[in-house]
Structure formats: C-alpha cells, structure tokens
Amino acid sequence: MDEMKSTSMYQLMKLQYKRVLLGVLFMTFGVGIQLLSPWVMKILVDQAIPQKKQTLLYGLILILALSPFLVTSLGAIRNQMTHYIGGYVTDQFRRLIFRKLTRLSPTTYYQFRSGEIANRIYSCGEIGDSLISQTIVPAIFDTCMLVGITGVMFYMNWKMTIVILFMLPILYILTQIFTNKARPKIDQIIQMQQELSGYSTEFVSGLKTVQKFNQAEREHEYQDHWINKYRKLRNRAAFFDNFTTLIVDFGRALGLGIVFSYGAIQIMKGHMTVGSLIAFSVYFPQMFGSLQEVQTAYMRTELTKPKVKLIYEILQLPDEIVYLPREHSQVEGKIKFDQVSFSYDDGRGEISDMSFTILPGEFIGIVGPTGSGKSTLLDLIMRFYQPQKGRIFLDGKDIASYSYEDLRSQIGLVSQDVFLWNQSILYNLKYANPEATEKEIKMCCEKAQILEFIQELPDGFDTIIGERGVKLSGGEKQRLGIAQVLLRKPQILLMDEPTSALDANTEALLQRQLKNIFLGKTVLVVAHRLATVRDADRIFVLKDGRLIEMGTHEELMKNQSLYYRLFNEQYKEK
Ligand code: ADP
Ligand code: MG
C-alpha cells in the first residue's frame, strides 16, 4: 500500500530501479556491439585483407558472425525489461486512479462524465506501455547510439563527420516546423477523444430514449459530424507526421550520396581508406535510423502529454474522504442537526439553516414537494456531502469525527434508485454484507417481500441481473435494495421513497414488516405517498430546503398548512 503514495512517474520508476539498471546495462552493451561491427569491417578491409593476416581475418569474421546474435539477444532482454517497467507504471497509475476515485466526494466525481473517467483509466496504458516501453526507453537508446556513432565517426575521419553533422541542424529545423504545426492538432484530438468517450457511454445508456423519441437521425447527424471532424484532424496530424518522416528519409538518401561522393574523392587523394568509407556507409544509415526514432519518440511524447495531464487532473485532486481507523462502536441512533446549511455548488441553498433532533427509536416521515431537499438531507446524514454551515451529530458526536466505515456501518440507506451490479442476485446481496449466511439472506429477502420472486426464477439466487439491473422491474429492484440494507442490520435506517414503485398491497405488507424489524431503531422515511408515513412518530415537512413544519399527522392536519394542502391534494376523494 505504501508504494501507492508515489504519484510521479519518476518515483514509480525509482521503485523499479533494479529493472531500470538492468535495462540500462543491456542498453549500453547493445550500443557498444552495434558500434563495433562497422569498425570490424573497416579493419577487415584495410588490414586483414591487404596484409593477408589469416588469424585476424577469421577472428574478425567470427565477431561479425556473432554480433547479430548478441545485438538481438541484448535487444530482447532490454525490451523485456522496459516492457516490465512500462507495465508496472501502467498498473500503478490505474490503481492510483481507482483508489483516488473512492476518496472523492460525489460533488467532485459527478463533475466528470463516466465515459471520460473510463477513458482516462484506459489511457494509463499509454503512459506505461506506449510512453515508457515504446518511446522513452528506445529514445534513450537511440540518443546513446547517436552520440556513440558521432564519436566513432569523428575518430575515424573528422572532416567527413563535420560534413555529415552540417546537415543535422537543417533537418532539425525543418522537422521542428512540422512538429509545431502538428501539436495543436494533437491537443484537439485528445480533447475530442475525451468527449467522444463521454458521449459514447451516454449514447449507449440513452439508446432507449433515442428510439423512444425517434431521434436516431439526429444522433447520427451529430455522430457523423463528430466522426468527420475527428478524422480530418487525425489526417492533418498524420500529414505533418509523415512529412517529418519524409524529410528525414530524404536527408538519409541525400546524405548517403554525399558520403559516398565525398568519400570517393578523399580516397583518391589518399586521405581516407576504403574500409573507413565502408564503415561510414554503415554508420550513416544507422545514425539516421536513430535520428528518426528520436524524432518519432518526440512526436509520441507530445501526443501522450495531454493524456498524462488528464490522468494527473484526477490524481492531483485532494483526498476528500480520509479513511479513519474503525472503532466498531454501536450507536444508539440519536441524530441532531445544528443550523445545517448545504448547497451543491455554493449557489442555491438546497438545505438552509436546518435544526432538529431525532431521538433513538423514532420513526420520522419526511415529506415535501420534489426538489425540496429530501434526498439531500439523507445524503448529508450519510456524509456523502459536507455541510457548508452547521454541524450534524450522531449520538452527540459530530459525524465528521466518525470513520466513514463506522458511520456507514451504522446507517442503512435505501436510495431512490437502487444500483445493482451486473452480477448474480446473491452477489449483490452479499455485496451489502459479505458475512451474511444463506439463512440470513433468505430471511431478509422474505422480509423485503422478494424471496418468492427470486425462488421462482429459473436460476434462483444465481440469476444474473442485467446491466444496471434492467432485467428487474423498479419494484423488484427496490425490494432487493431493502433486502440489502436489512442484511447490514443498521441501527439507523434511511429510506428514500423506498416503496414508490410497489403496488399498494405489497407496500402495506412491506411497511408493516419494516416497522417490526426496525422497532426501537431510528428510521427516516422519505415518502411521496403521504399515507405511507401517516403513522410516523413525527413528520418533517420540507419546502425549498427548509424545515417548515414538524409534528404528528393529526397535529399537522390541524395546522392547515402545507402538509394539510398536500394531503388533501393526494386524498381528495377519500
Ligand atoms: P428531493 O429529494 O426533495 O426531490 P433533492 O434533495 O434531490 O430533492 O434535491 C434538492 C435540490 O438539489 C434540487 O433543487 C436539485 O435540483 C438539487 N440537486 C440534487 N442533486 C444535485 C446534485 N448532485 N448537484 C446539484 N444539484 C443537485
Ligand atoms: Mg429525492
């Protein structure tokens, strides 16, 4: 776990220092051997052949014969090392993002589209595998090659080397021009990739809506616009990329001609040996090959930089959720709000100056028009969000002083829309409490009025729930959500319109069950149907984030205020 703290690529590489060292070692050997061969050729042509030295001849031939084996095997080891290092970096970055996400508050992670985050997790591979294994390490190797070759060439014939080196700045400037032209395109490409991932995920989850509203044409138009724009950008970027390659290729072809012509003249004048020219004619293409590799690596790095930035954008977010050590203490269930105010984006007050105390064992109904802050109130108790003003107490202790695990093991929340994994029913139930026994699971399902339904399924508890539980009806999902919470045996139960999708009969049954199960525990039920909470010890009436009324059904009816109006609207005929 400790190594998860390091977030910079440098720190991660440091953890892999053995492999890095090994890689560097084999790289140095590799460069040495590649430099050796042309030199051997030179000695062969200039000394062994004219002087008819047989031992030298065979010795040199042996070196020439062995060097390809050495070069390739050293290269293979080096590649393997860099592959490991790159893979390690990729894996660590992925882990870091996943871990970071669980340490963010909903206000932060809901700013990103889910597809965009998925894309960033995916593109970690581009840092480790592409950037490190296939780009940076080869670039270092080729830079070493360039320096080595230049050194050896200088040693052999400095005049010729200067002629060659003279070409390099010109090439550099030319390629730089095109690279600079490509860079803004690359930024746009990355930006578009992000948006495309975000849109694609949304499109897939909204497919039914697209079909329902007959909007396929409109979506296709939008997609085509996208696809065309993206392709155009890619083509432009590829054009500049190809042009730089072209320039280097051209330089190589032209350069080889110059080397040979200039070399021939030098040989005629007796300033150069044939062996040197042969060596040069091998070194020179090698040099350009390396140059090209460095150039490509540079382009790739430019291409990856914006993606790295996107990954760091998430990694550098401060941890909003600090996991404290657990205490496992059982709470009694007293909840107190002390002048609590909260808004999602410091704009409207979703909860304004709210104060109340709920005693252990109380059954509280929460009602109010949509958007009045009922769900937000429950989320605040769960500490998904932090109030901007005021404090929330549980058993007289600020909820901020509980560890998240402790707090959430005491409170069960049945959300408005139940999220289920695309796994078996059993998996989803055990997700709520991994230690639950089969007997407990069955019992909780029975109490949640879902056991019969599950047992009638062909695969029973092993039935796989479709993605986002689409194979289940809203009511079935709600009842599974209730079973999940029952399995957790919380001291405090929060329910957000838990039975809104059930028929009146099932609802009444379930209500009676829940009341029995949670006898003596603190229960907060948000209800749209007012009859659901009619028997509550107290009913809280919310409007525009304010607690405007509080009391039993009879008291509130007597008040003839908002609750009275809402009740009469819903049950006019009765
Ligand atoms: P209720 O459950 O009473 O219908 P909510 O608590 O869900 O109401 O919402 C209260 C207000 O907060 C609404 O005006 C809603 O638009 C806003 N709201 C809810 N969730 C978010 C969110 N994640 N980001 C920004 N605003 C939100
Ligand atoms: Mg709500």
Q: Give helix and strand order, one letter per element, not per position.
A: HHHHHHHHHHEEEHEEHEHHHHEHEEEHH
The hetero compounds bound to this protein are: adenosine-5'-diphosphate, magnesium ion
Helix count from the secondary structure assignment:
19
Oligomer: single chain
**Beta fraction:** 5-15%
Number of strands: 10
Radius of gyration: 35 Å
Helix content: 55-70%
> Superfamily at the CATH H level of the largest domain?
ABC transporter type 1, transmembrane domain
Strand order of the largest sheet: 6-7-8-3-9-10
> Roughly how many Å apart are the termini?
62 Å
Give the class from helix and strand content and strand pairing: alpha/beta
Q: Spans of 5+ residues with little confidence (pLDDT < 50)?
A: none
What shape does the CA trace take?
elongated
What is the CATH C-level name of the largest domain?
Mainly Alpha
Largest sheet: 6 strands, mixed
